[in-house]
């Protein structure tokens, strides 16, 4: 069927292409899948309506998915995959396009479910649950979402290190301490540094979370704002301690990423100098571009692989552009907070102001108070997911080390007490 589809109406053409994709996937035929991709390109030349543009992205995602399943590497522990990159990219484009809103609930549920499935495959099971829940919000009896959600939660439960927490895994994975960690006797009498690192990461995350709550619920003028001389720049800025608390919350939540990278660099002995390690470069061999570190390539660690794929959302340009609206520009926002300026304004009043500010000209990232809150909430969610992936990833690695250590190695347990709440005070 190597003919053009110019003589078919849009609906019939889309139906034909969908059939070719389904058959190509069932038969593991790369030729059929490539043919379907070519037909989609022909169809796009017509200038499709929004609904069909979004559906075309969904079809391309299905092509990538079918190619991944047909690949001989399908069951291998690949940390980098063109097929997964393509599938996630196209599903997010389908979600982000205006045509998505014109789908019926079942079609929307299918796309949410598929995105949850591929995120779960990479190890990003926290975000996967969110997408399955969105599918079920659209269609409460959508069996595909229920089934995959159950499978995902089952794997999640299997990753936990405390059997008593399986029924409350979302809380347990974050609130419990790190799993048991083995360290050499010659590394000193105290606990491994990774435990102190993890303590500090959690404490700083909790402080950032509360800072956002404080800023959002602030009332009146804070005493620290009184008497501070500020000029009216006629663009309806939102100034004051409450706004700065929200900025602090964003910075604190974003800082979790680099701290996670520092901990993993030490724990996995990746060898990156302390002053150079960050969440962007942790995964790669220094000086070799995007060459995955040999200690990670092929490593059978589902949560750590999820952490790697989370980093792509933050730092890879093409991926960042198709994340959900509240997750876009997080890197740029953080960069301006640390090195330039972030101006927060009242969105409604700013729309009536004749005095606008161009960020590219003045080094100012202009954002409404509503968008700042939304992006900070998203950043907190991503940081929380990173902490869970870190904790469970170390658990998986400790199990691997135990299994490969051999019976002749001696292990002496060291139980650490809990730091009580009553000690968390300065007076």
Automatic annotation (TrEMBL):
SUPFAM superfamilies with a match to the protein in the record: TPR-like (SSF48452)
InterPro entries, A to Z: HEPN_LA2681, TPR-like_helical_dom_sf, TPR_rpt
LA2681-like HEPN domain sequence ranges: 188-397
Source domain of life: Bacteria
Presence of the UniProt keyword Acetylation in the record: no
TPR repeats: from-to residues: 109-142
Pfam families (alphabetical): HEPN_LA2681 (PF18733)
Gene3D superfamilies: Tetratricopeptide repeat domain (1.25.40.10)
Key words, A-Z: TPR repeat
Name this polypeptide is given: LA2681-like HEPN domain-containing protein
Species, as recorded: Pseudoxanthomonas broegbernensis
């Amino acid at each position: 069927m190597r003919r053009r589809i110019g003589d078919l109406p849009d609906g019939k053409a889309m139906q034909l292409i969908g059939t070719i994709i389904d058959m190509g996937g069932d038969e593991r035929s790369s030729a059929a899948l490539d043919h379907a991709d070519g037909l989609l390109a022909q169809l796009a030349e017509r200038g499709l309506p929004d609904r069909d543009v979004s559906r075309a992205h969904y079809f391309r995602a299905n092509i990538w998915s079918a190619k991944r399943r047909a690949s001989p590497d399908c069951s291998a522990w690949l940390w980098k995959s063109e097929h997964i990159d393509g599938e996630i990219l196209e599903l997010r484009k389908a979600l982000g396009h205006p045509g998505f809103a014109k789908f019926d609930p079942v079609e929307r549920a299918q796309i949410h479910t598929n995105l949850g499935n591929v995120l779960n495959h990479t190890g990003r099971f926290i975000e996967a649950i969110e997408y399955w829940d969105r599918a079920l919000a659209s269609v409460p009896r959508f069996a595909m979402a229920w089934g995959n959600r159950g499978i995902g939660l089952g794997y999640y439960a299997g990753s936990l290190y405390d059997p008593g927490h399986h029924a409350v895994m979302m809380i347990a994975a974050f609130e419990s301490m790190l799993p048991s960690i083995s360290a050499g006797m010659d590394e000193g009498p105290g606990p491994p540094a990774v435990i102190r690192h993890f303590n500090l990461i959690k404490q700083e995350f909790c402080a950032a979370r509360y800072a956002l709550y404080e800023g959002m619920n602030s009332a009146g003028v804070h005493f620290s704002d009184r008497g501070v001389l500020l000029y009216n720049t006629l663009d309806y800025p939102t100034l004051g301690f409450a706004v700065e608390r929200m900025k602090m919350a964003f910075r604190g939540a974003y800082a979790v990423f680099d701290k996670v990278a520092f901990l993993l660099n030490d724990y996995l002995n990746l060898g990156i100098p302390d002053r150079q390690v960050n969440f962007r470069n942790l995964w790669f061999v220094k000086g070799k571009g995007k060459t995955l570190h040999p200690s990670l390539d092929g490593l059978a660690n589902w949560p750590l692989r999820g952490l790697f794929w989370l980093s792509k959302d933050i730092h890879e340009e093409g991926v960042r552009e198709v994340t959900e609206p509240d997750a876009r520009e997080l890197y740029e926002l953080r960069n301006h907070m640390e090195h330039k300026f972030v101006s927060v304004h009242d969105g409604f009043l700013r729309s009536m102001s004749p005095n606008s500010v161009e960020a590219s000209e003045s080094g100012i990232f202009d954002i409404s108070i509503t968008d700042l809150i939304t992006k900070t909430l998203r950043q907190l969610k991503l940081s929380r997911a990173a902490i869970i992936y870190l904790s469970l990833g170390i658990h998986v690695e400790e199990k691997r080390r135990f299994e490969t250590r051999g019976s002749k190695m001696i292990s002496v347990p060291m139980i650490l007490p809990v730091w009580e709440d009553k000690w968390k005070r300065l007076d």
